[in-house]
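To: structure subgroup
Subject: Chain for Friday's discussion

All,

I'm putting the inputs and outputs inline so they're searchable in the archive.
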Amino acid sequence: MQKTVAFTLNGKKVSVEMEQSKTLLWVLRTHFELTGTKYGCGEGYCGACTVLIDNSAVRSCATTIGEVAGKSVVTIEGLADGDKLHPVQQAFVDHDALQCGYCTPGMIMNAVGLLNDISNPSREDIISGMEDNLCRCGAHNRILDAIEDAASAMKSSGN
């Protein structure tokens, strides 16, 4: 049965009428045409589909649209402030923390969620917090360095 689900998406109030069992990933990509959130494993393991729901990193392939009713969802497309990249995005650019780029949106969103939870993480905190986001290219050390720099930048700017 279709129902109307209202939520905030990248800072804007939206609503959709559809089956509440549809995955958030499917709705983001097909209904809202926000394709920065990637389909990876489809089972919540790889992290390519990570978005923020109420500032926490969540796998959108394992979340139904019904679960986001009344909540705030942020995708990679909504992370920057106009032309100003979020500190995590900027750090990924500065450290060339990617290769093929497929996992990058999910890595960035997971890192933002991690830094929302732990403002001054140790290297071990970052490793542990990012462990479930998979990258086959081998950019792991650059990703860790980028997150460390982003944490410092966010701390000094008050983000």
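Points worth raising on Friday:
The chain has a mean pLDDT of 96.
Helices lie at 24-31, 87-94, 104-117, 123-130, 140-157.

D.
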